[in-house]
Amino acid sequence: MLLEIVLFTVVGIVMYAASDYILSLLERLHGEPLPQRNIVFFVLILTLSLSTFSLLRGLLITDESPQDNYQEQQSTN
Questions:
Q1: How far apart are CA 52 and CA 13, in angstroms?
Q2: Which residues lie closer than 8 Å to 19 by C-beta, 6 or more apart?
Q3: Pair 34, 40: CB distance under 8 Å
Q4: What pLDDT digit, counting tens, does each position of 17-72 carry?
Q5: What is the spatial distance between Cα 24 and Cα 11, in angstroms, rounded to a whole number?
């Protein structure tokens, strides 16, 4: 559990840095600062976070999760 918290925190920091880098790259290609810079940054980090965290959640699922335990308890009653 602690390892997951550390992993998600590190991934969040990397995503922040990646979003900032991509935004800077887009601004260099555009030739000037983007007019809605905050919105573009939000869309970038939202897209990265939704895709990355769902991928990580899929990779970190164990064989027996709390939801499985709850379903087993319900079926035995």
A1: 12
A2: 41, 44, 45, 48
A3: yes
A4: 999 999 999 999 999 999 999 999 999 999 999 999 889 888 887 655 555 555 55
A5: 20
* Its pTM surpasses 0.85: no
Domain segments of the chain: what residues? Answer: 21-50
Ordered DSSP codes for the chain: -HHHHHHHHHHHHHHHHHHHHHHHHHHHHHTS--TTHHHHHHHHHHHHHHHHHHHHHHHS--SS-HHHHHHHHHHH-
Contact 24, 65 (CB under 8 A): no
Angle at 75 between CA 69 and CA 77, to 5 degrees: 110
54 C-beta neighbours (distance < 10 Å), count: 10
